[in-house]
Fold these 4 entries.
Entry 1:
Amino acid sequence: MKEEVRLMKGNEAIAHAAIRYGCDGYFGYPITPQSEVLETLEALMPWETTGMVVLQAESEVAAINMVYGGAASGKAVMTSSSSPGISLKQEGISYMAGASLPALILNVMRGGPGLGTIQPSQADYFQATKGGGHGDYHLIVLAPATVQEMVDFVALGFDLSFKYLTPAMILADGIVGQMMEKVVLPEPRPRRTEEEIRKQCPWAADGRKGLRKRNVVTSLELESSRMEEINHRLQATYRQIQENETRWEEIDVEGADYLIVAFGSIARICTKAKEIAEEKGIKVGIIRPITLWPFPTEAINRAAQGKKGILCVELNAGQMIEDVRLAVHDAIPVEHFGRLGGIIPSPQEVADALEVKLSNKK
Amino acid sequence: MKEEIIIAGFGGQGVLSMGKILAYSGLMDDKEVTWMPSYGPEQRGGTANVTVILSDEKISSPVLDTYDIVVALNQQSLDKFAPKVKPGGLLLFDTSGIHKVPERDDITIHPIAAMDATLEIGNSKAYNMVVMGALLEAMRYKLPMENVVKGLKKSIPERHHHLLPLNEQAIERGRKLLNKE
């Protein structure tokens, strides 16, 4: 059968992808610029086909705790929101990390701080990659640049979070959430049966039915030595994730004089900026981290060898730049360019910044 | 082939849905497409715009500085985007409500009386399709009408498919606006 190519908003695509993945439940609360996720799910009515639960909770806090409950019983569950809503969910996210629960969380970032603006932003990089909630934990953070990646990262996010038993986040922005593009949807998969869940998740609190000892899912451990052990186990998992799951894309890195590092939809604006710069004879390569955590530290270090400088382009005041500077040990100049508060830079602005901040220096 | 287009006007004029139909038509013609709207408060009565890119090749940035084609449906949009037409590019604008016409001699300018033509048809909701007809006629890239019809079908919910003939008629009326000049 020929794959059906469709035109879809990133947010709509997430909803289709979730149903086709065999997701068991979505719990959310509307907020621009991601309300189409819940709207599309409501329109598709998956509870009548796959049996997937779609629920508009009374608040973001309620939604994330419903996700905790669903995940604790071994279900593939998710939530989505935008920046201020994601802040509200942080307690639940930290609890899930502490309880080693799989779940998928989508953040379609908007400008902040506070209630901010509904326009696109990438200012939640720190929150997503450095904790967000309390305690020593990491999320697996995926940054989609296209609507197709919005689709693909639903399956990837769920798969990774079940493999490593830790929540995964898709860190998108208002651009990729709102824009329409060609997508190919995956073949629908049935939801896992109760038996399959019991096999995959022997830890799940899914009703022991007199067959086994009870399972307890909690992030609480008052005995410090045991709490330390739990922490060490989490850290070992994070090291494994770093070793196995770091993903990035490189464009014309070899032979370039300068590097741009950018993630998500902004990397695409940078690709156009690269073309503009090259018309002036400035040779530019691009590295697009696909996983923001784990961060492609070694790839950036390798790519930076022999380069004259790096421009970090982010829709924030300079957050990922800290990880880039660490990656290259400040061996070459690393500069930041970004717009704040929901303004999207044009390709020309990025090309100008590259020229002013780096190539004019020597 | 690559056409970088912005359609801009008031919220409610059908700017975003015209962009969607154009993008879907391109998709039906096997092109790569992106549709990037201005979203949020702008949609509710203020100015609205949508960037549509149709291309043979993979599209990098969905956000642009300059455009091959600008379609401006009010004075604000005309003032804002006329300077952003690439040299050699195309500017279409609806003459109704326009008091200041841009002066550029390095681009092709088509003033169209789309609102008047729509009133002739007798359904003001067909306005954006009249504009789209003019755009299709003016564009270098000739989108086959059969794919435009397929694009229409894909974009319009099935319960409104009885309006397809009206939309096609509006597109044909729009094409004539351009041929008259």
Note: Chain A touches chain B through 25 residues (CB under 8 Å).
Entry 2:
Amino acid sequence: MSTGRRRVVVTGIGVVAPGSMGREGFWDMITAGRTATRRITFFDPARFRSQVAAEVDFDGRRLGLTAQEVFRTDRFVQMAMVAADEAVADSGLAFGADGGPDPDRVGVTLGSAVGATMRLEQEYVSVSDTGRLWEVDPRYASRFLASALVPSCGATELAVRFGAHGPATVVSTGCTSGIDAVGYGAQLVEDGDADVVIAGASDAPISPISMACFDTIRATTDSNDDPEHASKPFDARRNGFVMGEGAAVLVLEELGRARARGAEVYCEVTGYANRCNAFHMTGLKPDGTEMAEAITVALGQGRTDPDEVGYVNAHGSGTKQNDRHETAAVKKSLGPAAGRVAMSSIKSMVGHSLGAIGAIEVAATALAVQRGVLPPTANYEVPDPECDLDYVPRTAREQKVDVAISVGSGFGGFQSAIVLAAPTRRES
Amino acid sequence: MTGLLVTGIGVVAPTGVGVEEHWASLVRGEPAIRPVEGFDSGRYGVPLAGQVRDFVPADHVSPQLMVQTDRWTWMSLAAATLAAEDAGYTAPEDVYATSVFLASGSGGNEFSQHEIQGLWAKGPRSVGAYQSIAWFYAASTGQVSIRDGFKGPSGVVVSEGAGGLDSIGWARRVARRGTPAVLVGGTEAGLCPYAVLCQATGGRLSSAQRPEDAYLPFDRRADGHVVGEGGAILLLEEPGAAAARGATKVWGEVAGYAATHDAHHHEDPAPDAVQYARAIRLSLADAGVSPDEVDLVMADGAGVPELDRLELEALGAVFGGRTTPVPVTAPSSFTGRLMAGGSALDVATALLAMRDGIVPGTAFLTDPVEAPAGVDLVTAGRVRDLSTVVVLARGAGGFNSSLVLRRPAGGPTS
């Protein structure tokens, strides 16, 4: 990257995660090593292979949404709105007020893998009379199905909420959507198309169709008798991911602007890259080559040496092949430094919320950089010879980190990496 | 800096499968909007649509892939192949040198309706192994990348009807960061019962029984649009890379792009066209083009009176000072609105128009609304030399995107 590049910092964070309330509740939970995985309560999971999930006890009304907002939107939009409200309040930016950012220079990038799937399924049950009618009955449809069909409704709701007239979009690259939405948001600022971007991701996939489709390919865990310990990334006993839900939103801001207003800066986004493995929609080769390439390119953008990386926030979904793939990718990209790096998966605690988790993990990584505490990999007990890095087992670790990376891997072959650096990092 | 070059186009549209088939149909002025085949869409108040009738998936997609994917992905796979063939593009040695950056609106509708139907009628075990990879919005991008071995930075944007243009906007960011070739655009296939019902609930669809009464952008009789399926995929290449591989065809140059959002209301457009006009102005400035230099505008053409009025207001604000009005046409009137696929198809149509110096008309536009100063609504097709064309698209909820295309120096090569 040229030296004239506009630099991007994180000045606000909002989180809606299972087992907690808000950003600080989330941070307390993951640094305590507590798990939010439980037997599914949203519907009776008895007929499903995987019966556990990390659910959010979410009440949009209690969290400030209006009755109409709750009525017209899917859960994924509601969680995005709540996370965005927290992030914007945290940033101290006065949107729409004197001294606030120029609305024309504020963008929105929202990631989501499956959009309004929960609402689309719920309404389908009515209009099809529980799957009886192929030619569905229009008299049972709500008038907000048109926006539910197309997930860009989520970006619209956020743009309207904050009066953001800059570029807005939903980014939907499956399970890397969250990292990609934050990464693309950062590119909007770098390229001068926005000064502030409300960037994040949200997904609410704990519904019968989503659970069923992962059941059939055995991607999710069947550790139904012990929900609290069902998500076991990097552990030799791991047997699939635990479905989750949630949202995280970050306020991205051009560095000079943030400094000028004296904003508190969590970290700088110094690099972002994604690559495809062009191999298989769900399968991963054990070598991790394309994820390694994404990490290497992202580090290069910020002129970061692998030795500087103190923490890797892992995708760590807890499937057999992912954790092996990812371990190989980190070794390949960081070289000898991989032997010293701390790496953990918060999916052990909050599950895998598909497109949302990437943004939740970027939020966790930003907090780790700011606070010098690394969240652990819960439930890690039995080492796997193929996964032989330092996974920060069970207990959080106090450790100052100058540079951290968060990585993601998703159906479709997408591999993404984002690099966050402490604002105090000294550039060599 | 010279913009990315369009070196290949693949079209799967109601007007035809293949770029020349589509264009011939437009030049002949043959609308492709007809009564829906396959189910009774009339019960959703939507008797007409732009269906792709001469698309034989097996001609383009392997049997294994066909069972794993939705019709929307079949169309993307076909259009991607057609674009690569048109460009004479084969996967280069550097596996990371090609990106796939498609727009999607509604994902794998028909496939998913079958699976949800089975789930609720018979139980979880009736859901097949491919639902997890067929329905989600990234399915087409992932499948194209896997089939063709493209490992570059890839992504999926969703901004309803503006998505096709926005995929080009993102492709430029990818190219700036070093990836020389990007497949862009997208397709859409939302013509199964549930997807049609969903779209109908938005209240913007025409219920007319006859094509000549249905989707009438800029006509006084306009009362909504007709939905369609299909779209286009285009190959964009960095000029140096295109020259280095000996690319023989250049359709045009992506000279400018910008996007804004109304940020006014979750459904209704802003009562003024300020943000829409701003998107157009920003894209012109990005291209270094003055409003006087624009030879043609391909409008969004919503076919809803209020939205048409706002589009004309935006165009008047940008082009009102011209001494000769700019021709404005809406060829989507021939196909229906294809959501993310529609703006991609409009880009293809604009490049064809530039190549042949032919402005396609607006179907069934017989009683045009009053156009503001600086705007000339095109009814029938006409001949005109075209060097700079602006393509506009809006997405429901307030997305405004504008793309500036320029004819390459010396005209399109082929």
Note: The first helix of chain B runs from residue 19 to 28.
Entry 3:
Amino acid sequence: MILPVQNHNSNNLVFGLNIDEEELKKHPVLIKNTLPNRMAIEWDKFTNAITMYPARGLKGSKNSNFYEFLTMGVIPYLTGSAMLMAVFNSANKFFAAAEREKASKFGSKMALGVVFYGLAKNISQNFVTLPVKWLTGVDTEEPYAELKYKLPEHKNDTDITSLEYHKVLESLEFPRWDVKYGNEAKGEPRNIWFDKIAKKIGLGYDLNDSDQDVKPRVKEIAVKTNFAKAFSSYMWAAIGVGMALQNTWDDFFKSATWKPWKGKPFVQTMGRFIDSTFNSAIQLYKGQEGAKGFWGKHSGKVLIASAVLSTLSTVTNVLISRHKPSKYDSKDIIESDRKYVVN
Amino acid sequence: MKISLMDNFIANSRSNTFGNYEKNKSASAEIELVTTRKAKPNFDINRELANRTFIRPLPPKGHIVKNNLFSAPMNFVQEVKTDFKALNSAWSGDANDHQLGKLNDLGMKLGGLAIASYLFTLKKAPVTKAMEFVGLGSFFASMALWPKLALDIPARLIHGFSPFMRYEDSQGRKKGFFQDNQYIPFDMLKEKDIDRIGNRLNVPKDLPNRREAIEERMRQIALQNNTMWMLTAGFATPVMSSLICNRLEPYIENIHNKRLNKKMESLLTSLSEQSKKFTSPEIEKGVNEVLTLHNNEPITDEILEEIAKALTIDLNPNVRNGVKKDLEKLFIGEEVRYNIQPDDLKNISNTIHTLLKDAAGNKILKENLEAIVPTETQLNALFTQNGYFEKSLNELDMANVLSDITSQVSENIKNNPGVNIDESLKRKLSKALRNTHDNSSKMSLPKILRANPASVLNADAQKIIQDASKAMTKFCAENTALNVYSFNKLAQAPNTIKAKYWNDTVNALVDILKITPAEIEETRYDRKLVGELFNKKIWNLALSKDGSYEKFVQDFSHRVSEIEKTVNPDNLTNKFMSEIDSAFERASNEFKGLGFTNTAQRLVGINSSEAGSLKGITKAFVKDNLSTLENTMSAILNKANVFRTIANDPEFKFISGDAKVMPREIREELTALAEYLTTEGRISDYSVKFDFIRNPNPNLEDLSSLEFENGQIKYKYYNAKTLQKDGNIIKSDESFFRNIMKTLFGTKLDKDTENALAKYSGVKERLISYRANMYNVVGNLENFMFPSHITNMTKYYGDGRVDPASYTISTPKSRSNAVGAPIDETLANTMKRMYNTRKWLKMFGGFGAGLLGFTVLSQFFFGHSNGNYKKNKA
């Protein structure tokens, strides 16, 4: 038996997300794609991923779904990163002084490499999604919230809803076009969003069925953007690791403190961190001192060029469409004296 | 709800499909078909519509993917094909969700490859370079292996099915069978398979709807496994990957070492031939650039310097100086000559003007200065009259030119009575004209006059230099081949053959001495403690009577004898040395033929002495490194031999002879010093370590034997702590010095050592040679007093024989090579490394094992939370 929707526990809503709860009970609700909203969503997903979803999974609950499984994917990323740092650092304290210093120097760089990998990978996705958004109007990252109904786990289980966050263009086989249609009850034109996109990508104005014209193109943009993200973000992540392994960090780690309560030394550490990040990028580009041979001197440049090229080429590919707008109006190409079969 | 939806769907389908078809069928006669160029030529729409087969759903093609050893290669090929197809579809913009998911994995692998490739370029040693890719591979392998190992295999064994099995859907997409807990295509499983699994899961056979119950159990178990995978993979993958790398590294080192050794031995067999691949165009290119730049210019010192530099890239400055001397000799001759042309006169006159103006300051008016500076016409007349334009001028001529100019200035002063210049100023002006201003950028008349050397870099000169560059290119290729060989064999650098041999042998020593992890942990911070432990272990062996000593000598010798197969001292000291001789002789003769005699000398030395020559340096690298290596290994065996000798002859008759017994206290002091020197033998310390603190008033009455207890020596008199207070350094005790040297190196090998070494003749020979060398060069008192002198002394052969007529030479370098590396330090470094690795392995190996155990055990708790079918049965 499906319990009434009123049973949705409003505490499930995330603090900081401005979602109309009444609307949410009726249909999925779009969420504005802003940094605070994205962070709120990620935080909510993260807390669920480490608490509710594994608990459900380990119980073997029927309510555990593919969304929860995918959301739990964040766990191996985080535990794996922490473990990778530990592998290179946690045994060092048992070593003799000279070995400890040597191992810690390398271990600190590896730990920084893990952090930079994650940062570079996530930040670099914007190198793809933002230009696509500016140039085509299609925000491939636009999130929406949806209330899902579960089966009761036991007879007293009245909270049978679960809040899920998806992206409108998350599935390219089943894009959620429904959330992009205007609310006619509120006086919005039904194709308001599609009209806007049609105009932006040059399909024309005042189209009769802009949604039909726009959907294939948007789908193409989303596919290519996802590909561009997947392909180039890992190359930028490689740059992050490359930067972390430069010699410029050696001095930084010698006197860095990560304890904010130490006051001035912590502030100085932060300042030097920015300097070292900048210097490491320069060293990655120029090559390390005393490097010999072409690859010794230029491998950093090749790495940077690969990342830049992968982003540029894939983003350019997004902008080149197979779905060209017709140069002719229908009245110009249909010959009135002939008969046609319309499928 | 389900039913109504289905009804709606069927109703809609009927209205839209069948309904339209019926309508169209009746209207078919009125349809005028328009054929297009691309339409199928025989396509009959009416027949197709009448046939109705098209409205049936296609038969499903989905099936479970069988993954076993035999299907794995084909599956891999298919996966690669699918990846490429996905790549193409994604680029074109029509990929599906499944394909995009696969591309994310591909992107991650490419990113990983980029990281490994970049790190590869940062690393210098070949094995560490290779380990970057091993690390990458092991990481991805661990990602795939962990769920297989920790979850899939236990689940198959316990529950009878794989929670990670895959299926291929009708569109050919391979997916995890249980990846979506709410969409599991159970219809792909055959009844008998389900029954088999149900039996394993103990689902009652008489249960109504048994299949549903089994499917539910399977779903539950698979979900629990998937969740467990997510929870454990992050912890497991880095640890597993690191452990794989840790285990694989020695194998990679072995493979690298064997390949490198094979390559080097092959290089040595045809060194001259194979040296061609080391030919670099850099020398000829650089020389030609200099020649083109200065074509037909007067040959100056700077040009010769540039040519010498271009000819000797990567060679030492000594050879460069030789080349430059030869160039000077060839193109300038015995004395430098210069030309002066009429065109130079203006510059000369201007220079004189500037110099006189600077020297006189405000003491001469401007118009007077103009009057005394020789004009171009005056200079022209002067130079023509003396024939300076017609010949090349040597230094004497140049002095005359300068003198003539000075005279002309004096004459101009004389001819202009209005110019009032006193004698002092005259001398100052004269000095200004003659000043060469060496090491200064100031203008100088002698330099201006010498601006045009008579020798010119013409075609003939260029031909000689180009021939020299060809000879140098050839020599440098051979020299590089020689250096590549000796470096890879003997350099103290990572991944060389010597480094591998050294590490393996010292690691083996720790095992052979049975040094326990606890002992390593206790001593790791201090090489002194390692030295004490080493002494303890060797005493234990030396005092044993159960064959342990012989076994130690044999086991260690067996490891040491690997040097014949790997480093191969025979080849290095014979064949390689003759290759060095041949290569340098060839080059020397060639350079001599081209007139570069100085260069030839710098390559091979003067007369028969190689001292200071490049050949000498090349050979010294081999000799020094090889002797240090061999001597370090021999020193370890010698220590055991010395202890065994003392253990077998505690009265030290090997020194004093049978008739006389040395006082016990002196013997104890000798033993203590022997312990000390054979452990901390570092040549820089040797001279000071003989400053051994002893008892200035030893008990000379006690002639009793040395005592041993529990496998260790028991000192009655010697006590380092009390001696710090009461003892003294007795510098003048020559007899004590000679006795300790004899104890360490100057006796016959102990008979047990000799017997144990019977099978290892090479090791034995080297040990004897080491002892003889140490006795001759280190144990020679005169050498300590006069480190670089050649002194007459008795030569000892190490096997008890002496040659009273011979003498030997000792220099600080020869003593340093003789002593080798300090054993305590060598052992301490190895033990520290072992401790670190063991500690790391213990931490993460333990963690990995714990995690694996926990994950496997968790399998027993899966699938038990739902017992409904039991209730149903009841």
Note: Residues 562 and 568 of chain B are 9 Å apart (CA to CA).
Entry 4:
Amino acid sequence: MTVYSDEIVCSPRAGTLYDVLELILDRGMVIDVFVRVSLVGIEILKIDARIVVASVDTYLRFAEACNRLDLEHDTRSKTVPELFGGPVSRTIGKAGAKRTARSLTDKVRDVLTPDDDEGDDDADSRTEDAPRPVRKRRSDDDRPRPRRRKAEEE
Amino acid sequence: MTATAALTTAGTLGTLYVYGIAPEGVQTPRAPGVDGAAVRLLTEDGLCAAVSDAPESVRARRRDLMAHQAVLGELAAQGPVLPMRFAVLTPDAESLRGQLRTDRAHLMSQLDGVRGCVEMNVKGTVVPGCFADLVRRDDTLRTLARRTRERPGYEANVRLGEALAKGVAREARGAARVVLAHLAPLAVRTAQGPVDDEQVLSTSFLVRSADEQRFRQAVAAQARDVGDRLALGVTGPLPCYSFVEAPSATAGR
């Protein structure tokens, strides 16, 4: 699993399998006479990530955070977790804010990389049975995340 | 997207899964291939292809994606390699050998193109935290925020939120351009990947192995500079997926 230190948001993240997924699937050489098997599930997974990004939920979250801003006085002391506050910052503080910052595509990443050690096969069922499983993640945003394990138990 | 096709050939006797092509003389990768199959090399005319028996069906399972990657990683550690896309099959060993002969010149020159190089992939995602600064700086947004407070409501919130989301993404895209301008000179070539409202930077860099550390340091420096707007991630060294081209124009991307 990628480890997030508590102090800084700005160090580059180490890559996960998700980060190279499009390279493995869409780049690389294909020679004419060879056959490439079509992989349907993956496309759906990607599209799903895209849709959620532009969701009303995201907008409302922005608006809510903005409505808590002091517009008249320039108080720059506020930290990111406070601004993106609510349950996230109360329960897991900085790490939570960072997760918000890393945001939605990471949810998909998580689906594909349940653990960086011995991860078994859950990308399988995810990609094959497509849209259903990925749906849930929005509502999970605010929780510390025990939910990842669910995938393995299925 | 890419070619769909003939699932019927998968699992037929003789069908091979192809990982990549390297110059003759590399050692056989020890990592298990897709579906756990043993990987072997087919050598022809100065080139060799890493293959394994094709599984009954190829699916983008986590384990198999990792296997594909691991086999290529072993080859890449030994020298230049032309990585195939995931899930490429050849009907049998003979067609593959024939292809290696026919395309020899092209494949050799492609190998030269990536020799001594690795692919580094840099992605940048929007950091929403900067929106507070943005509201203070941007008159339009501030006005919108005030108006939303005066006349709150669902619609108003959605409108405000959308404007903020767009503003934040715009900031991130600006930062992405800066990052790109700083990193590109360190690379031999670059290849842009798909971007969207959330992931605004996705670019692969063909970097000389000798420059890998320098490149990483540059990414880290950029990450610090733009961290309030853009979260950077770097993956690599990778086989040069983004810097190989198929022999005929109709095949590749």
Note: The radius of gyration of chain A is 18 Å.
